[in-house]
Amino acid sequence: FPHGDPIVIKADPTVAGGATLVMPYGPFDIIIDDGSHQTKHILGAFEQLFLKAVKPGGYYCIEDLENFHLPQVEQQQRKDFFLKLVDANQVRGANLLKRSYQNDVFNQKVIAPEHGVSSRASDLEKWVETLEFHRQILCVRKRRLCSDVPKNDWNCVEGQSESLPLAPVMPASSVPTLEELAQKFKTGIKGRTHSETHELHFGGDKGCHLHCYTPFYNEKFASVRDMPLKLLEIGVMAGDSLALWSLFFSRGLIHGVDIATDTFQRNKDTLKSLGAFPHGDPIVIKADPTVAGGATLVMPYGPFDIIIDDGSHQTKHILGAFEQLFLKAVKPGGYYCIEDLENFHLPQVEQQQRKDFFLKLVDANQVRGANLLKRSYQNDVFNQKVIAPEHGVSSRASDLEKWVETLEFHRQILCVRKRRLCSDVPKNDWNCVEGQSESLPLAPVMPASSVPTLEELAQKFKTGIKGRTHSETHELHFGGDKGCHLHCYTPFYNEKFASVRDMPLKLLEIGVMAGDSLALWSLFFSRGLIHGVDIATDTFQRNKDTLKSLGAFPHGDPI
Predict the structure, then answer these.
(1) Does residue 328 have a pLDDT over 70?
(2) Which of 236, 358, 378, 479 satisfies CB 3.0 to 4.6 Å to 513 for a cystine?
(3) Does residue 43 surpass a pLDDT of 80?
(4) 551 versus 90: which is more confidently predicted?
(5) Residue 457, Cα to own-chain centre: how many angstroms?
(6) pLDDT tens per residue across span 370-395
(7) Are 106 and 411 in contact (CB under 8 A)?
């Protein structure tokens, strides 16, 4: 606590009375729930705090969501709550919110009873922008206010902000944003109409004149845009998307695959006249990647750092391409992103097939803990429970489940990150797959900083009470369990929050215990105001001086 003690609130935030005691200290940019991990407390705190205590654009992260040790009824309650949010946010398209496009185009379908979709998204569904599942962590991002985003970005909620939104510090670049490029490249064939007045530009539909995916991609890939990466887009049409990627990724080798490439060949000179493909023409492969024969034609050009599926959007093609390419054509640490996943217009059987496939991956990755993979901790501690038939968990994760590191759902996009090889991560990071890499992994360029990584801090702050044991040999340090000596959440947080670590943000952690987590946040966020809430704070008060002797709370005690 080099900047002062954290603010530690004695309250139960899972109920209205306790949450009311927390509100005056907010709104928070980040809330971390590392509390009791009981389902009723996880859901109670989220329902009390997400809408009222998280700043628009902020994050609410829940740790230790594995549930294989819980009774089946409680497992299902937990899954149903969050997967319903995924469904609303992603698959059925129920919370397309504002501005002309979704009002003119989608709303009539979204509220049509024949599609089995409720007429209104709930307030909770309305405010959920992104759900990111990363091995026992779920981070939910709150949608931003329209006053805080560019005028044509309609992925927002109407309103005026009262405080600065949480926004990553993007590296300075002379390259335009992806949205600026999307507005430039709309040369493709005008065809299929969603309404009498709105025409869809095939291949140039990523911008906020249509789907408005560009703000998401711009933020997600900003830190790797200057890397010599390989990108493959499924679905080429007139080539507008390939054109914008060729300028966004200044050193990227751009590929496209489609069952027909003649439209692109006819349009290529037009795109080049607008500045596209400055480093050479993209490699466009004529093949069907949704089947084994077509995928085989793609493989020699990989492995790819990023694959974007903007193809036919038919369920059989989405699932076919993913099954063919994710394991064999995506580089460890790379991304496979699928666009236009809304399914409310599909027959119920096809809707369910699409949902079941990806939600099964969420379940394996996140909720039941089935793909804890390697190194001493999960082998010693969790494996016996994971393979126990009484918990309804299969003895082995499939190869597909084994390689899925993160699933990020963002309004009709799903980005699946492939797990990294152990040779490409620090020695004590066990969230990886054994093997030696043959090419450089995709890794963001982190801003230079004298502040240590979150994992280095986690290894420093393990002062808490030793108690509850998961095995005869492994003791859990309450409050100091984020590091790779235990849960290994620190690499995920370090990458996720690296771009905002020097901002004057507010963080609240639910569950304080001895205060080790508050200590590491106080040093990681150099200008952060750190808060904790717990039903009991005496353990922290007794341990505070020990933490401060190790350098914690340099700017004052936490609240």
Answers:
(1) yes
(2) 479
(3) yes
(4) 551
(5) 23
(6) 444 444 444 433 444 444 444 444 44
(7) no
Q: Which helix (H) or strand (E) segment is 532 a member of? A: strand 529-534
- Could you write out the three-class secondary structure of 427-444? CCCCCCECCCCCCCCCCC
What's the rounded Cα separation, in Å, for the pair 261 and 248?
22
In 10 A of CB 439, how many CB atoms?
A: 12
DSSP reduced 3-state for 492: helix
Which stretch of DSSP H or E encloses residue 317?
helix 315-329
H helix or E strand, kind and range, residue 539:
helix 538-549
Compute the distance between CA of residue 388 and CA of residue 321 in angstroms, rounded to an integer.
Answer: 33
What type of residue is 90? Q
H/E stretch holding 308 reads: strand 304-309
Q: Are 135 and 365 in contact (CB under 8 A)?
A: yes
Read off the tokens for 132. Answer: 């990111």
In terms of Cα–Cα distance, which of 66, 72, 75 is closest to 390? 72
Q: Which of 66, 32, 23 is nearest to 512 (CA)?
A: 32
> Measured in Å, how far apart are the chain's first and last C-alpha atoms?
11
Cα distances from 386 to residues 315, 397, 423, 559, in angstroms, run 31, 10, 25, 38
* Cα dihedral across residues 248, 253, 259, 263: positive or negative: positive
Rounded distance between C-alpha atoms, residue 203 and residue 185, angstroms: 9
Distance CA 132, CA 281 (A): 35
Above 80 in pLDDT, residue 331? Answer: yes
Question: Is pLDDT at 103 greater than 70 in this prediction?
Answer: no
For helices 348-362 and 315-329, what crossing angle results, to 10°? 20
Say how far apart CA 36 and CA 312 lie, in whole Å: 45
Instruction: Extract long-range pairs of 387-394: CB within 8 Å, 24+ residues apart.
Output: 388/68, 391/68, 391/69, 392/68, 392/72, 393/68, 393/368, 394/370
- What would the DSSP string read from start to end of 64-116? ----TTS-HHHHHHHHHHHHHHHIIIIIS-TT--SHHHHHHHTHHHHT-GGGT
Cα separation, 221 vs 249, in Å, equals: 9
pLDDT score of 197 more than 70: no
**Distance in angstroms (rounded) separating the CA atoms of residues 77 and 128:** 19
Block residue for tokens 């998961």: 470
Q: Which residue has the tokens 């369990």?
A: 481
Amino acid at 55: K
- Kindly give, in sequence order, each residue whose CB lies less than 8 Å from that of residue 347, ignoring residues fewer than 6 positions away: none
What mean pLDDT is predicted for residues 514-518? 87
Residue 298 or 366, more confident: 298
Question: For 378, which DSSP code?
Answer: H
Contacts of 114-117 with C-beta under 8 Å, sequence gap 24+, read 115/344, 115/345, 116/344, 116/348, 117/92, 117/93, 117/344
* 250 CA to centre of own chain: 24
Peptide bond into 228 cis (omega under 30): no
Q: Which helix (H) or strand (E) holds 454?
A: helix 454-460
